[in-house]
Amino acid sequence: MHRELYPPKSWTNDRERCHAAKIPDERGFATRPEPARAMVLRALASPLPIAWGYRGCRRRPGVALSPDAAAVAIDPGLPDLPVEPREAIGRTLVSHFLALWEENGELTALMRVGATDPAAADRMQKVLREQLIPLARQVGPDPEQAPMRAALCASTVLGLALTRYVLRFPASVALDRDEIVDWLGPTVQRYLTALTP
Length: 197
Hints:
Elements: H1 9-12, H2 15-20, H3 33-45, E1 53-54, E2 57-58, H4 67-70, H5 89-103, H6 105-114, H7 118-139, H8 146-166, H9 170-174, H10 177-193
Antiparallel strand pairs: 1-2
Helix pairs in contact: 3-6, 5-6, 5-10, 6-7, 7-8, 8-10
């Protein structure tokens, strides 16, 4: 499957056979969608330009990719994020997202696809609805403002992700993690906890 080693279950169940064929121990059996998903994610995470194909033809505007190919479900784990000390939540959130982006190519894939594919955009909005808005409600001064505050935080974090991991602006890529946290942390903090703009 696109230069991906795809041994059948009869092979992966026989480790001696795998060793004789020099198949690495970490290579186990996978159903066809798993290596295909990995291949799509590698392509999306690469800096090379891509064009979507849809059932053997070039993707037409308005024709959605299948949910499995469009993106993956992402759980950034915001409910488990420590919110104390409250005055550090902006830095904590930016640091958390940086770690996620740098350790998970699926987020870059989701970002690339989310701009043009409704299914992927919905996955990103789901994180906003189910995780970021509740966090903003928990730490902000006015629960009614939580959707607005969460959207502002998302615009900051996603703006960085777009310029650093997708478009790869040299100045954005050159920043180290501490610099990003120092610059964006106070902004996200203000969005979440400031009494007034």
